[in-house]
């Protein structure tokens, strides 16, 4: 009986030892390796030397990024019409075509033009006759051969004819006919339409033979000397802007090409969406800028000293930004970072408290990232 108990005890002890041996590797397997740590061997370090630095204070400007469209101020947009209306006889204008001040851009034809010229010539003739009659009555009155009433009636008639003649002359000038040079043999049924600016054609609203009313717009012309960039700004950002601030604008098609200028006017009206308009003036007009074009703009709002690291310290992986921090010799931890503005080769670190007194990799940071990800794939 005693031998059986000893035998049972030995078997239990043996089973206990075996269980302990099996638990040991299981415990090792439960220890998870930090996937964000990479360790370099001496050979790897020689092939890819690592350099580190700590956060440093750098003078970095805060930049406000906005978007908007090319706009034309009202005084630079000309709508061309003909006061008395008529039929478009000729025009060769197309949208985008350049025009010069004084250039004939169309010819309008209207029978009313003939009547107006006729009325003016008759009024001018009557005014001349009334003036002669007044002078004769004035001379007779001075010699007491005519009454004062006769002289005054002649003077009144002369003034009335002059008023009518001047009124008709102004109407002729509206349709670009010079009344001083008008003669009975030069009456015309068509008149030219001139460009009043140097610029280009924005819109053509008529075709040959079409009748246009006095209120119809034939063409729209743009003077590009003062083309604006109209930016949309949120209400919260208005306090950071002021007249005269510089901006750099660029298009989505060519972000590398910058267009510079300054803020001309800040609107005081806030839309229902919480946006205000900021009107900006370009330093120099570029023919590639056309009204309605979408543009992006950057405006420096303030400059201050900020905790920053060199740009090459930042690595981007899966849309997120990181830096490598040295945790011990030849071992580095991939740490998430929140970035601010970048200037002069340095990037502002917003979560700088996480990196105080820590060594941050500045050279071969992307090499460490590749080594880290390759190690994960092998495992």
Question: In words, what does this structure look like?
Answer:
The chain folds into 4 domains: 1-29; 37-58 and 305-378, conserved putative lor/sdh protein from methanococcus maripaludis s2 fold (Beta Barrel), CATH 2.40.420.20; 64-74 and 223-304, Efflux pump adaptor protein, beta barrel domain (Elongation Factor Tu (Ef-tu), domain 3), CATH 2.40.30.170; 77-222, OB fold (Dihydrolipoamide Acetyltransferase, E2P) (Beta Barrel), CATH 2.40.50.100. α3 (111-142) runs antiparallel to α4 (148-174). The chain has 5 helices and 22 strands. The radius of gyration is 43 Å and the shape is rod-shaped. By secondary structure, the chain is α+β, with helices and mostly antiparallel strands. The chain starts with a helix and ends with a helix. Residues 19-33 have low confidence and may be disordered. 28% of the residues lie in helices and 35% in strands. The strands form 5 sheets. Strands 3-12-15-14-13-16 form a 6-stranded antiparallel β-barrel. It has a 4-stranded antiparallel sheet with strand order 1-19-18-17, with helices on one face.
């Amino acid at each position: 009986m005693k031998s059986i108990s000893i035998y049972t005890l030995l078997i239990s002890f043996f089973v206990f030892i075996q269980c302990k041996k099996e638990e040991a590797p299981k415990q090792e397997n439960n220890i998870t390796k930090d996937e964000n740590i990479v360790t370099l061997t001496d050979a790897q370090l020689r092939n890819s030397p690592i350099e580190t630095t700590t956060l440093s204070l750098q003078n970095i400007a805060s930049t406000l990024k906005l978007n908007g469209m090319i706009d034309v101020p009202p005084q630079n947009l000309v709508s061309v019409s003909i006061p008395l209306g008529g039929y478009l006889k000729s025009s060769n204008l197309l949208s985008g075509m350049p025009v010069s001040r004084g250039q004939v851009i169309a010819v309008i034809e209207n029978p009313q033009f003939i009547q107006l010229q006729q009325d003016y010539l008759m009024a001018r003739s009557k005014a001349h006759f009334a003036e002669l009659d007044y002078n004769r009555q004035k001379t007779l009155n001075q010699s007491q051969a005519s009454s004062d009433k006769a002289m005054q009636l002649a003077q009144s008639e002369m003034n009335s004819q002059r008023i009518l003649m001047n009124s008709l002359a102004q109407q002729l000038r509206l349709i670009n006919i010079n009344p001083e040079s008008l003669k009975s043999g030069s009456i015309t049924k068509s008149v030219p339409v001139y460009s009043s600016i140097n610029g280009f054609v924005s819109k053509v609203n008529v075709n040959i033979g079409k009748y246009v009313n006095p209120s119809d717009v034939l063409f729209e012309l743009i003077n590009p000397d003062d083309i604006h960039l109209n930016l949309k700004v949120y209400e919260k950002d208005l306090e950071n802007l002021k007249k005269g601030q510089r901006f750099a604008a660029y298009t989505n098609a060519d972000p590398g090409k910058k267009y510079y200028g300054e803020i001309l006017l800040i609107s005081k009206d806030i839309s229902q969406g919480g946006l205000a308009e900021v009107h900006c003036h370009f330093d120099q007009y570029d023919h590639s800028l056309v009204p309605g074009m979408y543009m992006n703009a950057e405006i420096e709002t303030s400059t201050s000293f900020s905790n920053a690291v060199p740009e090459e310290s930042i690595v981007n992986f899966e849309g997120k930004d990181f830096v490598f921090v040295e945790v011990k010799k030849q071992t580095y931890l991939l740490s998430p970072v929140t970035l601010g503005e970048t200037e002069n080769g340095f990037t502002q670190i917003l979560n700088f408290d996480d990196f105080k007194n820590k060594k941050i990799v500045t050279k071969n940071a992307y090499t460490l990232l590749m080594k880290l990800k390759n190690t994960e794939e092998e495992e």
